[in-house]
Design a protein that fits this description.
5-stranded antiparallel sheet; alpha/beta; 5-stranded parallel sheet; 2 domains; 6 helices; Rossmann fold; single chain
Length: about 240
């Protein structure tokens, strides 16, 4: 997991940095907001923390950029956004932040432990989610080349799966609408072989729907996902369709 901290005054963020270090999370700090914008897509942070005290105008630009150029292109890479504020943060700014999808605020002038506990909670949830996803494995045979395709499961529900292949060349010719008949889905110690249909493709990120599975199989998959506390109500619109 990676955190991007955008703050000119590092001393004011010492408690934030200590919490990040406690969770053994990689930290990238930028003192200049425009430099952060230049590198945010390459770094692809899981969490972006912006010091709104240092940058009372720039924080809006940064968040708008994330909403426009990251979320719309690849929702999976959309980071959690946290604003560091003080007691002078205005109600108008809170209103603007709510419209810009800020996840939470941390008042770094407030000595209440609850303020920083928000960070611990966010990091713990993200770490748990990554560990739980390790219980899910998926592979399939590419229909044209008969090559086995392995990779990483990014998200899963009882009716679909989002998958990032390890080798993009093996899926270069895979198109939306194609059926994958030879698949293997492993959830914990349980294995399933659902027929899958390519419903969306965004770069190398694929979304497959489970086709032709029985109600019993769907219930079994759902039970296993519930056991690992994994799974969302994914829809085909959750990935912008860029397939030509």
């Amino acid at each position: 997991m990676k955190v991007m901290l955008i703050s000119e005054n590092i001393k004011s963020c010492e408690k934030v940095i200590r919490i990040i270090e406690k969770h053994n999370i990689a930290l990238v700090n930028y003192r200049f907001p425009m430099k952060a914008l230049d590198n945010i897509e390459e770094i692809s942070p899981d969490v972006v923390i912006i010091n709104a005290i240092n940058f009372p105008r720039h924080w809006k630009v940064i968040v708008q950029y994330i909403n426009t150029y990251i979320k719309k292109v690849d929702e999976y890479k959309y980071p959690t956004i946290i604003l560091l504020i003080n007691n002078s943060f205005k109600n108008d700014d809170f209103d603007k932040a709510s419209h810009l999808n800020i996840d939470t605020f941390i008042n770094i002038e407030d000595e209440k432990p609850d303020e920083y506990e928000k960070l611990n909670h966010i990091f713990a949830c993200k770490e748990k989610g990554k560990e739980e996803m390790k219980a899910i494995n998926f592979l399939f045979t590419e229909p044209k080349s008969n090559k086995i395709v392995t990779g990483t499961v990014n998200d899963i529900a009882d009716n679909s799966i989002r998958f990032l292949p390890e080798n993009s060349e093996t899926v270069f010719n895979l198109k939306a609408g194609e059926i994958l008949s030879n698949t293997l889905l492993q959830i914990g110690k349980n294995r399933f072989t659902p027929q899958c249909k390519v419903t969306n493709k965004n770069g190398n990120l694929f979304e497959f729907s489970f086709e032709g599975i029985t109600r019993v199989e769907k219930k079994l998959i759902n039970n296993k996902l519930n056991h690992f506390k994994i799974g969302k109500n994914m829809t085909s619109t959750s990935i912008p369709n860029t397939t030509r």
